[in-house]
Amino acid sequence: GAVVSQHPSWVICKSGTSVKIECRSLDFQATTMFWYRQFPKQSLMLMATSNEGSKATYEQGVEKDKFLINHASLTLSTLTVTSAHPEDSSFYICSASGQGADYEQYFGPGTRLTVT
Amino acid sequence: AQRVTQPEKLLSVFKGAPVELKCNYSYSGSPELFWYVQYSRQRLQLLLRHISRESIKGFTADLNKGETSFHLKKPFAQEEDSAMYYCALRTGGFKTIFGAGTRLFVKA
Questions:
Q1: Which residue of chain B is at minimal alpha-carbon distance from A9?
Q2: CA atoms of B22 and B31, how far apart (whole Å)
Q3: pLDDT above 90 for A55
Q4: CB neighbour list of residue B30: distance below 8 Å, 6 or more residues apart
Q5: Residues 23 to 52 of A: which have CB under 8 A from any B CB?
Q6: Residue A97 has pLDDT above 70, yes or no
């Protein structure tokens, strides 16, 4: 099956700094990528949807200036958490979907962000 | 409003017993429903989708539009089925909404 990778798998940063998380589709072209956030013992919350070459569509309540998403190529999307605060500490998961009738989403392993 | 409800946070059954993980949805359009599974320390992966109407690892799920349900069933649970299960609804524009998840624990 298709593989989606995320880097880094975990990151610790200081409050006020920015951190970038990468999401790559390794063996297929991802027309659409999704970014989710998951709090401990809770479900995945969709943050934004991005299509290659277009601006991301953010869900209600998600600050687009704080969570910058770039989908510059069909295999790479990045999420940058700007001016991170402790409340941004969470598990961030990306998923990717290719073209075609299948539209199956393939999930990355997630990135654990801890802001101190 | 678009919503997926999984009423049980935890479901514990004995090995060999039948399992049913409940899922109800709220969506005004034509729904596309999925079950995803997350085994310990692994990423989320697709278990099955309603349009496929197939059985995966012995699990089946039938979409009941009248009851707006998509319950996941397996006649005989196995220990390796212990995992977190998420019901998901895909709406227009490929947006997928996840339920809160049910942790299935199969006891020996």
A1: B43
A2: 16
A3: no
A4: none
A5: 32, 34, 36, 42-46, 49
A6: yes
